[in-house]
Amino acid sequence: VENLFYNMIARRKTLQNSADDYGKIVDLLSRMAIHHNNVSFSCRKHGAVKADVHSVVSSSRLDSIRSVYGVSVAKNLIKVEVSSGESSGCAFDMEGFVSNSNYVAKKTILVLFINDRLVECSALKRAIEIVYAATLPKASKPFVYMSINLPREHVDINIHPTKKEVSLLNQEVMIEMIQSEVELKLRNTNDTRTFQEQKVEYIQSTLKSSRSDTPVSPLPSGQKTPKV
């Protein structure tokens, strides 16, 4: 993209910090790359040798997450699936991955696709964070990838100006079912938590004085003891 907003001076002035904009681009493409694993993605800053996002066509969603977010994230993921029919009043299918008790991070990452569209749902994110806060230490935040498919008429995309945030029909019922499944998976894997062990060698040093314990003669009156 060249000469972006060349005829909108006010808008172009808000693009002074290119590092922030590039970070947002990398985050967006990273999310797209793990969902659309039938497409190869590559994102490299101008002048850089190494690409910040590089994914290849893969049949496995876990392989796509590994190539984009790293091995440390991919090895600590649990697969979750929820399916509900019309009989429950809330028809949807969800599949995804959530981090287990060994994953530790300070920021929650929720990659949510509804009907193959990258969106946000604050209610779902809050519900998942509640499960992790009750099950795992407070310092750890989850990594969550979810892909939900449901009838298009059950999605309201007009609650946010950028259509980034969505609202769902029977949202409470759907979130409760997903929340219960995530909690069940976490409790079943909570016993397999591992800790890194580090060996520490303690060295006891003994100080030996070379001086003989001779009595110290008192100083004449009016003289101060010199500082050692």
From TrEMBL:
GO cellular component: MutLalpha complex
A biological-process GO annotation: mismatch repair
Highest taxon listed in the record's lineage: Eukaryota
A GO molecular function held by the record: mismatched DNA binding
Domain DNA mismatch repair protein S5: 65-187
Coiled coil ranges: none
Region annotated Disordered, chain positions: 206-228
Record Gene3D superfamilies: 3.30.230.10, Histidine kinase-like ATPase, C-terminal domain
SMART domains in UniProt: DNA_mis_repair (SM01340)
Location in or out of the cell: Nucleus
Entry similarity comment: Belongs to the DNA mismatch repair MutL/HexB family.
Protein name: MutL-like protein 1
